[in-house]
Design a protein that fits this description.
The complex is a heterodimer of chains A (230) and B (890).
Chain A lengths: L8 E5 L3 H13 L3 E5 L2 H11 L3 E5 L7 H9 L6 E6 L3 H10 L3 E5 L3 H17 L5 E4 L2 E4 L4 E4 L2 E2 L4 H12 L4 E3 H9 L7 H15 L9 E4 L3 E4 L2
Parallel strand pairs in A: 1-2, 1-3, 3-4, 4-5
Antiparallel strand pairs in A: 6-7, 7-8, 8-9, 10-12, 11-12
Helix pairs in contact in A: 2-3, 3-4, 6-8
Chain B lengths: L8 H16 L3 E6 L6 H14 L4 E5 L6 H7 L8 E5 L2 E5 L2 H7 L3 E4 L15 H10 L3 E7 L7 H8 L9 H4 L4 E5 L3 H9 L10 H7 L2 H29 L11 E5 L4 H17 L2 E8 L6 H16 L3 E6 L3 H11 L4 E5 L5 H7 L3 H8 L4 E5 L21 H26 L1 H16 L4 H19 L11 H50 L3 H16 L2 E7 L6 E3 L9 H13 L3 E2 L11 E7 L2 E9 L8 H65 L4 H33 L7 E3 L1 H16 L4 E4 L7 E3 L1 H18 L6 E7 L5 E8 L30 H11 L3 E6 L5 E8 L10
Parallel strand pairs in B: 1-6, 1-7, 2-5, 5-6, 8-9, 8-11, 9-10, 11-12, 19-21
Antiparallel strand pairs in B: 3-4, 13-14, 13-17, 15-16, 16-17, 18-20, 21-22, 22-24, 23-24
Helix pairs in contact in B: 2-3, 6-10, 11-12, 13-15, 16-17, 16-18, 17-18, 17-19, 18-19, 19-20, 19-22, 20-22, 22-23, 23-26, 24-25, 25-26
The chains are: A alpha/beta (230), B alpha/beta (890).
């Protein structure tokens, strides 16, 4: 799974040669090994054969949609997937995320952004979910004790708020869709009620953020979901 | 090319026009015979059978076989159109179903008996009018006709056989025939057929038929028919010669003018002139002179019939007003370059002629100069036109006026009876004279004349000695009496004439005024609707009628009534109007086409095409005089001019619009290429220099590349968004949004651009969630901020505020700047595509605000621009707000 000399292997699935070349340049420089595939079918084959650490997947492929690729991939693999979409493709992004993709990136994007996303995706696989406690900024979440501290002082959270936070922390650095959160916290019937999330998120921010109106950690992804940024 | 060998351009044009019309219209073939029974129908059916074998799509519109076996046999195999049943006064008759044939659209239609009169209630009174419509629709027609039915030959036939012909076909219609097949039979053969019972004699009494089919008559009829066809051939030949450059002899430019009046003899006069004109190959005009004397209803009707006949026979009809008929005729003749004037022989008493300064012929001869005068003797008709009628009073009923005269004279006589002893009978005479002259101002010629006579006799009887006798004793009394008599008569006549002229003058003036007012109203009207309204109201008052105007649609599919009309058209009237529009002829009441209609329909003609129809509807009991109908046509002409002006203007506007849109496209192309090329040039330049640049330069180049890329991205996104908006592909996904989130995301997106401006955003804590498409709203706010940052001077502050209105019905976001702001007149345009503020710096496509508005509207909101109290612009976005549902408690 890890390529030679400790370089994580990245599978780039994109039909545009120039994008693949650019990715290779950027990722080589950032310490990754790169394999390329130009169609969804080839991508799936490469994923099975080379077992990459992460997959960068373009949504618009000539043979099948990226969403379809994610769905097929998820039948046998939990490898992190970063989907790349064009702007104004909110519906595509949500569909890809709901199908099992781990994060998205909007074209055109900078290489720094790409590297950051990849790091987040790869770290989760390193850290696993068993970490007993996570710290970001002045906030510390202790899963074992179900305890949240901000600047050393304990913060009282309701059960739902704690669940919400735990979910965000578990996927920290990655986007989580509204649907995903609603289903986890309230069950599948609550899927349409995104105002639940807004209300709880407001409370969480008030309790955890130093400036609740300009949150540093609990960020909103317009039209998609939320993301915990460290 | 020498002058003489060149064809007359006018004639050439006319013939070309005719050819052109012929090419579009169907061809007419007439099977022509001298009388019934020669086998016209038989010949027509044989020809049809041949056509059918040749594969021509034909139908039998109507054919009367009169149960003749050989004719009926020929009918088998030909497709028959079902006839239309019409019930008239309880009797069922069948007629040709014109509508069905027009709908069926065959190549060729067989229509028997061209001169047939249709049952009342049909579309046209005459079958030949049906045929003309078929031809106009482009259908070929075969028909049958006897020489006796030709309008100009009807007189001749009557003179030969003594039988009056009622059903006639105008010569002008007959001339539509492209082909004439003469079915000739010797009189002997015909009489044989008659004896065999092979000739249908109709309902005519046998003796009359016998008379008709006399050998001598048949010979004369045959000659008439042969000559008619020969004449026509001759005429066609002349026409052909007119086109050919070989022609060396020009026809003299003869032009005949015939004076038409209400008398039955005028009918013959018209026919005579037509024959004469045809023989000379000359054109002709029929002139009716309306004098101050009004015609009775019957006279009016006859005059119109005569004029209609003239029109049918191919004359140009001119109506003029003058009390002096001779002067009027000469004037019209000179105006129209007529070379010959045709008048009927006068039958008015000689003394009356003397009083008028000679008979009409005398007066004409005196004035006519180079114009030839033909005097045609009229046949004595049973109906004698009384010259006395010319002396009838004009307005009130004669009895009433005579009564008035009697009353005045009686009163005066009584008064004079008392004063005569004191002042003498001469003074009484003067008083009588005064009374007669005074009366002439009030009553017509007849009563004035009567007043003169009666007063003279009364004066003589009661006042001139010896009293109570008609004897005049003294010679000077005699002279006095005679003088009185003459002075009274002349004075009465003169005043009556002056009055009549005045009235006539007034009528003409009224007409001129009406047209003047119309023109004025039309010029003053700013829109077509105004003009139509003004014109129709004028028509209403002028004709004491209801009126309507129908305008043709652009696609020539139908007529639309204008809302200003006061006459609501029934379906039937709409049908009439439609006919008028398509056929470009008057129709409806007072005409020969669909006379049972309620309204008088006049087409609005412009250069061979009708742009609409004017409908005048007078009450059942009233009628439109010829002059009024003339005026209606003038009205229609004016309106047509107006409609055309309007359509030209509209066309101009469309063209302008097109040019404008073309300009816009060019501007867009220029804009897009400029906007694309600038960052591309930067990218190319920077990229090429990167390799060789030192570290410091490299940083600068990289920054340039990043800026250029952002600019490109923004441009492409804008174009894509605009496309999305216009294609209707944009479907907002409304979800609960938090104003803080939106504002933060938006600010993050444009943080770099905002860097040069002091920026403050205020979002109240208590602002509730609202439903919006978060991605779209983020873009809306970001673009507004970007706009403010780009289009205001550096270091001027920008404010962003969010809030909810008092009624909690709308949430709003405002972006205020302190830049130059927008002038009031620009604000509405601001949100249109490709609009850029006057103060906007170079570059940019002007799509930003248009996209913002598109996004806001798609989410059910609105955006307005206003003025910042401290100077600058304020954009406010409103979105509808509803309270979200409850959140389950824990």
């Amino acid at each position: 799974m890890i390529a030679a000399a400790g370089h994580p292997l990245v599978l780039v699935v994109d039909d545009e040669l120039q994008i693949r070349r650019l990715m290779r340049l950027a990722l080589d420089g950032a310490g990754y090994s790169v394999v390329e595939a130009e169609t969804g079918g080839l991508g799936l084959a490469q994923a099975a054969a080379r077992k990459p650490a992460v997959i960068i997947l373009d949504v618009g492929l000539p043979d099948m949609s990226g969403i379809e690729v994610v769905r097929k991939l998820r039948e046998w693999s939990q490898v992190p997937v970063l989907v790349v979409t064009v702007l104004a493709g909110e519906a595509d992004k949500v569909a890809a995320l709901d199908a099992g993709a781990d994060d998205y990136l909007t074209k055109p994007f900078g290489t720094a952004e790409l590297a950051a996303r990849l790091r987040a995706l790869l770290r989760r696989t390193h850290d696993g979910e068993e970490t007993p406690s996570v710290k970001f900024g002045e906030i510390e979440v202790n899963f074992a004790a179900r305890l949240v501290r901000r600047a050393g002082a304990e913060v009282k959270l309701t059960a739902k708020e704690y669940e919400f936070l735990r979910l965000l922390v578990a996927h920290r650095g990655k986007v989580i869709t509204h649907r995903h959160i609603l289903r986890e916290l309230w069950g599948p019937k609550a899927e349409g009620n995104s105002h639940y999330l807004r209300v709880h998120m407001t409370h969480l921010r008030q309790k955890l953020e130093s400036d609740p109106h300009r949150p540093r950690h609990l960020r909103t992804e317009s039209g998609i979901g939320f993301r915990l940024v460290e | 090319m020498s002058e003489t060998s060149r064809p007359d351009p006018d004639a050439l044009l006319a013939s070309l026009k005719r050819d052109e019309q012929r090419a579009q219209r169907g061809r007419l073939k007439v099977f022509f015979g001298m009388c019934p029974g020669v086998g016209k129908t038989y010949a027509m059916l044989r020809a049809a059978q041949q056509e059918l074998r040749d594969g021509v799509d034909l139908v039998v519109g109507i054919v009367e076989t009169h149960k003749r076996a050989e004719t009926e046999a020929l009918l088998t195999g030909l497709p028959l159109m079902p006839r239309k049943e019409i019930e008239h006064r309880g009797i069922r008759v069948t007629e040709m179903d014109l509508e069905a044939i027009l709908a069926r659209k065959p190549r060729l239609v067989l229509v028997d008996e061209f001169a047939h009169t249709n049952a009342p209630g049909s579309r046209h009174p005459k079958r030949y009018q049906d045929v003309v419509e078929l031809l106009d629709a482009g259908l070929d027609v075969y028909t049958t006709l006897n020489v006796q039915h030709i309008e100009s030959r009807a007189d001749a036939v009557r003179q030969i056989t003594g039988a009056t012909v009622h059903e006639t076909v105008p010569d002008s219609v007959f001339e539509l025939a492209d082909q004439i097949e003469l079915i000739d039979l010797t009189p002997e053969a015909l009489r044989e057929r008659l004896a065999d019972g092979k000739v249908y004699l109709g309902d005519r009494a046998n003796t009359a038929a016998e008379n008709f089919f006399k050998d001598t008559h048949l010979t004369a009829l045959r000659e008439l028919a042969l000559r008619f066809v020969a004449e026509r051939v001759d005429k066609r030949l002349r026409e052909l010669r007119a086109n050919s450059p070989l022609k060396t002899v020009w026809r003299s430019g003869e032009r005949l003018l015939v004076a038409v009046g209400p008398s039955p003899s005028s009918t013959q006069l018209v026919r005579w002139t037509r024959r004469m004109a045809a023989a000379q190959g000359a054109s002709w005009i029929a002139v009716s002179v309306e004098s101050s004397r009004t015609l009775d209803v019957e006279g009016q009707r006859r005059l119109e019939q005569n004029l209609a006949l003239a029109r049918e026979l191919g004359a140009e009809v001119v109506v003029t007003h003058d009390d002096d008929v001779a002067a009027a005729l000469v004037r019209v003749a000179l105006q129209n370059n007529a070379t010959q004037i045709v008048v009927g022989k006068s039958r008015s008493p000689r003394w009356l002629d003397a009083l008028r300064g000679g008979s009409l012929v005398d007066r004409l001869l005196r004035r006519s100069g180079p114009i030839d005068i033909y005097v045609v003797p009229a046949e004595r008709t049973a109906e004698k036109t009384l010259a006395w009628l010319d002396w009838r009073p004009v307005e009130r009923s004669p009895a009433h006026e005579y009564g008035e005269v009697a009353a005045w004279l009686a009163a005066l006589t009584l008064g004079c009876w008392f004063i005569a002893p004191r002042f003498g009978y001469l003074a009484v005479g003067m008083l009588y004279l005064l009374a007669v002259i005074a009366l002439s101002l009030r009553v017509g010629r007849g009563p004035v004349f009567a007043a003169g006579v009666v007063s003279a006799l009364t004066w003589n009887f009661l006042f001139i000695p010896p009293l109570f006798t008609f004897i005049i004793a003294k010679f000077e009394d005699g002279v006095m009496f005679a003088t009185y008599f003459i002075v009274a008569l002349i004075a009465g006549q003169l005043t009556a004439r002056i009055r009549a002229q005045e009235r006539h003058e007034r009528m003409r003036e009224d007409r001129a005024t009406a047209l003047f007012h119309l023109t004025q109203a039309l010029t003053a009207a700013r829109t077509l609707d105004d003009a139509v309204f003004a014109a129709l109201r004028q028509a209403d008052t002028l004709f004491a009628a209801q009126s309507a105007l129908l305008l043709g649609n652009d696609d020539h599919a139908g007529l639309t009534p204008h809302f200003a009309g006061s006459f609501l058209l029934s379906e039937k009237e709409m049908g009439v109007a439609d006919w008028v529009w398509r056929n470009r002829k008057n129709a409806g009441r007072f005409t020969d086409t669909l006379p049972s209609a309620e309204g008088f329909h006049v087409p609005l003609l412009r250069d061979d095409k009708a742009v609409g129809v004017l409908v005048i509807h007078v009450p059942r009991e009233a009628a439109l005089t010829l002059a009024q109908r003339d005026l209606a046509e003038s009205f229609a002409a004016q309106l047509a001019l107006l409609v055309e002006r309007e359509s030209l203007r509209a066309a101009g506007e469309r063209e302008k619009l097109l040019a404008e849109s073309e300009k816009l496209h060019r501007a867009l192309l220029d804009g897009v290429s400029h906007e694309l090329k600038t960052p591309l040039a930067v990218l190319t330049g920077a990229a090429e220099n990167l390799a060789t640049a030192d570290a410091a330069t490299r940083d600068g180049l990289t920054a340039e590349i990043v800026t250029a890329t952002r600019r490109l991205t923004r441009l492409v996104n804008n174009l894509l968004d605009q496309t999305r908006l216009e294609s209707g592909a944009l479907q907002p996904r409304l979800d609960w949004c938090d104003a803080h989130d939106l504002v933060n995301a938006a600010i993050d997106g444009v943080r770099d651009s905002l860097a040069g401006h002091p920026f403050e955003s205020v979002v109240p804590d208590e602002l509730p969630l609202f439903r919006a498409d978060a991605a779209l709203m983020e873009q809306v706010i970001a673009n507004l901020l970007l706009n403010a940052a780009l289009h205001t001077p550096a270091a001027t502050p920008i404010f962003l505020t969010a809030g909810i209105d008092g009624a909690r019905a709308r949430v709003f976001f405002t972006v205020a700047d302190q830049g130059p702001g927008f002038p009031l007149e620009m604000r509405e345009r601001l949100f249109q595509k490709f609009q850029r503020g006057d103060a906007a710096r170079a570059g940019g496509l002007g799509l930003g605000l248009s996209i913002i508005r598109g996004f806001v509207v798609a989410q059910g909101g609105e955006i307005v621009v206003g003025e910042n109290p401290g100077g600058g612009a304020v954009f406010t976005v409103y979105l509808p707000h509803t309270q979200h549902g409850s959140v389950p408690s824990e």
